[in-house]
Design a protein that fits this description.
A hairpin with a 2-residue loop joins strand 3 and strand 4. By secondary structure, this protein is an alpha+beta fold. The longest helix has 17 residues.
Length: 159
């Protein structure tokens, strides 16, 4: 079976865009600093507990998203494997769980485009392994959670 990430397909893609009132080197730096990532990353109401943070090409960030649901603490294990990092321009990563055979792993590309006024357009593209998986993650709130994450980045940058 062919690798679904070898070709880009719009029926498997989710695109989120955020205009940030900061220069792209500052926005990019927020992705490269493990302490910063743990402060702003993730949906509202969840906290990040990092277990390993080696943010470089070939490196990984292994972390849990932790939150209270129906009165009980729940943990969601996450793993980002950084495939390509072009400073101030692009980050490409595979994102899923720590399971090396995670069938729901997806490819994420983050681009940083500085505008003439010094603001940065951050574009986050997710490429899911199938149209069905894309539909499933949209159904459980991936778009809203992704936008909350980008709002968290904006708030962190503003501080």
């Amino acid at each position: 079976m062919a690798n679904p990430f070898d070709t880009w397909s719009l029926d498997r893609e989710i695109v989120l865009v955020k205009l940030l009132n900061h220069p792209r080197d500052k926005v990019f730096a927020a992705w490269m600093d493990p302490r910063a990532l743990a402060e702003w990353y993730g949906p509202a109401g969840l906290r990040i507990e990092s277990h390993e943070a080696d943010i470089r090409e070939g490196g990984v960030w292994r972390f849990d998203m932790v939150g209270m649901f129906e009165g009980k603490e729940q943990r969601f294990a996450n793993l980002m494997h950084f495939l390509e990092i072009v400073p101030n321009e692009r980050i490409v990563m595979d994102y899923g769980t720590p399971d090396p055979n995670d069938p729901d792993r997806f490819r994420t590309t983050v681009t940083f485009d500085e505008q003439a006024d010094g603001e940065t357009v951050l574009t986050l593209r997710q490429l899911h392994p199938s149209p069905a998986r894309r539909k499933a993650v949209i159904g459980f709130g991936a778009v809203e959670y992704g936008l909350q994450t980008l709002d968290g980045l904006a708030a962190w940058l503003d501080n």
